[in-house]
């Protein structure tokens, strides 16, 4: 009787249920379903939504907490941290404050990023994405009519983040969130300076409308062109304002001599 030949059998990797839950929650954080600062649903509700036991969910939450991805707050509740986005915005935000010449580099980078994001959003956005972007644009129109600078700059940031989320690329979602967090003050200052330039407010609104309409119509190339044209306009206008400011300061120094 011939000797039997041993068949190599690869051991099965049995994944713990808590690790599967961790992976699911991580995916939701990566895709932006859970954003930094969001409170996770109550334990009972989340366990039911995931179809798992509460002890397994509790173990998964503990693993996420050990990695700094969630934290418990006084008064109850588990919240998503900004750990995935940490280490990027803070040093650059400080550098922008100290080195105004970096603002031009930032606009150049935003042109590249936001052009790509707008095109991908037009090509990939779901109906829910389209509705969210449209709602934010309507809010932007209302903010421009009211002339509220803080509200306008905040909605501007939310509008661009909604476009990044609609691109359905986890890196774009988080890179955009990092960049917009870093640039919140920068965006606020840009809008303040642009508002000082007379009719610029209406032009900015028209540019955002062009991006929104191209995304709504699923026209990728048009969305990219509109987003790039918006950043080009901001760059040209801010450069003109800075040059005018330098000329005024030079004239004042001459008059003081």
From TrEMBL:
Transmembrane segments: none annotated. Residues 15-83 form the HTH gntR-type domain. PROSITE patterns: HTH_GNTR. Keywords: DNA-binding, Repressor, Transcription, Transcription regulation. InterPro entries: GntR_C (IPR011711), TF_FadR/GntR_C (IPR008920), Tscrpt_reg_HTH_GntR (IPR000524), WH-like_DNA-bd_sf (IPR036388), WH_DNA-bd_sf (IPR036390). It holds the Pfam family GntR. One of its GO terms (molecular function) is DNA-binding transcription factor activity. Transcriptional repressor for the pyruvate dehydrogenase complex genes aceEF and lpd. PANTHER family: PYRUVATE DEHYDROGENASE COMPLEX REPRESSOR, TRANSCRIPTIONAL REGULATOR, GNTR FAMILY. This is Pyruvate dehydrogenase complex repressor. It comes from Sphaerotilus hippei.
